[in-house]
C-alpha cells in the first residue's frame, strides 16, 4: 500500500483512533469500580460526621458506618452516640447552579441540629461554594430548631455564635445559595416530623445503632 496515498492515511488514522478509544475504554472500566467505592466512602463519611462520629480513613469509616441503623432507600440513619439518639437524613435540593446534596442530623426530639455536611454541589467557588467551609457548617452544630425551623440570615457572614436563636449566617454575596440551604434544611426538618418517617425512624431506633 502506498504510504503517501489517501487510503493509507485514512486507514492509519482509523487504526490509531480505534486503539486510543479502546485504551480509554479499558482504563475507564478498570477504574470505575474504584471511583464508585471512593464516592461511597465520601458519602458514608459525611453521614458519620453530620451525626457526630469521629472517623478517619476508609476502614474506620466503613466500620463505624456499619454500626449505624440505616434505611438507605429512605435515606434515613439512626445511632446512639454518648447516650443520645441521633437521626440522620440525606438531602438533595436545588441550589443556584445545580443540586446541593448532603446530610442533616438532628436529635431524636427534632429540637436541635447535630450537624450538616455537604456531599456535592455546583455552587460558585468563592461564593456559594463556601457552604462547604467549616465556618458555615459548624454553625449548625447544636443549633436550636424553632417551631418554623432555622433562618439563614444575610449579615456579616462570619458565623453566628449563638446556638439558641435558630439563626445561621449566610454566605456574603451568595444570597440564592444561602436561601437554598435554609429551604433544604427546613424541608428536611418538616419531612422528619411526618408520621411515615417517624415510623421508619422508630423502627431503626429499635434495631440498635450504637456508637
Secondary-structure map:
Blueprint: H1 6-51, H2 57-65, E1 69-71, E2 76-81, E3 84-94, E4 99-107, E5 113-120, H3 134-137, E6 151-153, E7 167-169, H4 175-193, H5 195-207
Q: What are the key terms here?
A:
two-stranded parallel ribbon; alpha+beta; globular; 211 residues; 7 strands; single chain; five-stranded antiparallel β-sheet
Please give a structural write-up:
By secondary structure, the protein is α+β, with helices and mostly antiparallel strands. It has a domain at 69-207. It has helices at 6-51, 57-65, 134-137, 175-193, 195-207, and strands spanning 69-71, 76-81, 84-94, 99-107, 113-120, 151-153, 167-169. A five-stranded antiparallel sheet has the order 1-2-3-4-5. A two-stranded parallel sheet has the order 6-7. Strand 2 (76-81) and strand 3 (84-94) form a beta hairpin. It starts with 5 loop residues before the first helix and ends with a helix. The model has no long low-confidence stretch (mean pLDDT 90).
| Helical proportion, percent range | 40-55%
Number of strands: 7
Strand content: 15-25%
| Multimeric state | single chain
SSE order in H/E notation? HHEEEEEHEEHH
Contiguous helical run count: 5
> Unreliable runs, pLDDT <50, ≥5 residues?
none
Largest sheet: 5 strands, antiparallel
The mean pLDDT is: 90
Shape type: globular
User: Termini, distance in Å?
Assistant: 72 Å
What is the gyration radius calculated from CA atoms? 23 Å
Provide the spatial order of strands within the biggest beta sheet.
Answer: 1-2-3-4-5
Helix/strand/pairing category: alpha+beta
